[in-house]
Amino acid sequence: MSADRDVNKLNSIQNFDPGGSISLSFITSLTNCEIERVGPMEFERISIDSRDIKGKELFIAIKGKNFDGHNFIRNALEQGAFGIISELSLAGIASSLGDIVFENDFSFMRVPNTILAMHDIARGFRQRIERVIGITGSVGKTTTKEILKTLLKRYQTVSTFGNFNNEIGLPLSLFRAKKNDKFGIFEMAMRSRGEISQLCSIALPDIGIITRIAESHIGLLGSMENIARAKGEILDFVNSAFLNFNCTYSRKIFGEMLKNKREKPKEIFWFGKVSDIYIKSYEISIYGSRLEFSGRFGNFALNAPNIFLPQFEPLLASVAVARFLGLDWNEINDNLQSYVPLQGRFLIKKLRDQIVIDDSYNATCTSFIKGLETIKSLKFGSRRKIFIFGDILEAGDESKDLHRKVIKKIEELDPYLVYFVGTEFVKSIDHNSKIRFKNMDIDCVKEDLAKILSKDEIVYIKGSNSTKTWKILELWN
């Protein structure tokens, strides 16, 4: 096909229909690309993983620290990709592609930076969504997203899937948006200053939620104040912000930041304690909670299955946003009945003869203490309690103090046995402590626990992701 015909073919494509396939003209209108070959003009999906190609995708060859998607362009074409976005020229990689250059019909676009091109395309997908809700914070992002998604279930909504919440994951989540989606609910994670701003520049949130500032990444950012300021970057983008009044750093740092704001956010809502919305009273059982809400959004009692102390703040934030968006209390209560937490987020299960509390998805000092307080509130009586706890990682110089705080809370519950995975908890235990514990790697814990498990025990599992405490659940599979 000649260059002139290539241009004519592109110009013949009219308006992009965001509800259907992804057109080549849509991609080229968003990116700083050079079209080196025109083949198929429509793509069904966007992928960055050649193993995920099923046919008719647009493959973006992104570079990471430990991989280079350009090495898999041939694989993507062999699997049926219809288009390629690359930093390398087609002429430069033609020899590595071999005969597939002639055998397959595909479009090829060259860009200066494939990750930035992916961000540009994601901004185009953002325009499919009427309103975007961005969620950041050290803990509770996923739970807030899941509860809010449950409350808004009568609307056409797109949200973060898996843990796709960084500079690579957020665009992939946005690529799932369909025409006329009412809401987008997206988590925004970060490890350094400037990353929340970058994510907000892609998702362009209208509403922002900051769940709670905790010790996550304190070893990288140096202080809780620095973590708060990094999370607070979302305030520069949103019209309406929902902030945690229970969190000292939220009140202090965001209070300071908001004094200097001129245009955004236009509205601030605080959740927690005696604020715009708060929990006046609650009752808790093994099945969930009954909570009485009060504040500017009115008074109401909600039945909240599968929601315990660790989820109270995410529930408050979600209910506040739902009320702000116009949902009445009855609809909120009705929708909440179908809420089921994701694996690893304080999910209580009866597995064979034990009650297993799966809280294995990551850990901070704050979330450890909330989980232990919940177990104390549930009043399991004389049942033996066994804890499998992995270290709190990325805690930096604060590590010993944070682990000691958790140990004090463990001592209040007097468990039968605690398995510590890692070294930080063990280094932080006072020699006078009465905690009965074993220090093992996770596979040894699994073997040892299998030997001592008995009927009606409470097994609580929690730890930072890399400690792999979730592997304990294999005992019941």
Provide a descriptive summary of the structure in words.
- The protein has 477 residues and is of the alpha/beta class.
- It folds into three domains: 3-118, Udp-n-acetylmuramoylalanyl-d-glutamate--2,6- Diaminopimelate Ligase, Chain: A, domain 1 (3-Layer(aba) Sandwich); 128-336, UDP-N-acetylmuramoyl-L-alanine:D-glutamate ligase (3-Layer(aba) Sandwich), CATH 3.40.1190.10; 347-476, Protein-Tyrosine Phosphatase, Chain A (Alpha-Beta Complex), CATH 3.90.190.
- Helices cover 34% and strands 23% of the residues.
- It has helices at 3-11, 24-30, 73-78, 90-97, 100-103, 114-126, 141-151, 169-174, 195-203, 218-221, 224-231, 248-259, 312-324, 329-336, 365-378, 399-413, 424-428, 442-452, and strands at residues 22-23, 34-37, 42-43, 45-47, 57-60, 83-86, 107-110, 129-136, 157-159, 181-187, 207-210, 240-244, 267-271, 277-285, 288-295, 300-305, 347-351, 354-359, 385-390, 417-421, 437-439, 458-462.
- The strands form five sheets. It has a six-stranded parallel β-sheet, with helices on both faces.
- A hairpin with a 2-residue loop joins strand 17 and strand 18 (354-359).
- The chain is globular.
- The model is unreliable at 1-18 (pLDDT under 50).
- GO terms for molecular function: ATP binding; UDP-N-acetylmuramoyl-tripeptide-D-alanyl-D-alanine ligase activity; UDP-N-acetylmuramoylalanyl-D-glutamyl-2,6-diaminopimelate-D-alanyl-D-alanine ligase activity.
- Shape verdict: globular
Q: From the 3D coordinates, which CATH architecture of the largest domain would you assign?
A: 3-Layer(aba) Sandwich
The H-level CATH homologous superfamily of the largest domain, spelled out, is Mur-like, catalytic domain
Residue-averaged pLDDT: 92
CATH topology name of the largest domain: UDP-N-acetylmuramoyl-L-alanine:D-glutamate ligase
Count helical runs: 18
Tell me the distance between the termini. Answer: 57 Å
The fraction of residues in strands falls at 15-25%
Which consecutive residue ranges, at least 5 long each, have pLDDT under 50? 1-18
Domain Mur ligase central: 135-261
Domain Mur ligase N-terminal catalytic: 44-86
Pathway: Cell wall biogenesis; peptidoglycan biosynthesis
Subcellular location: Cytoplasm
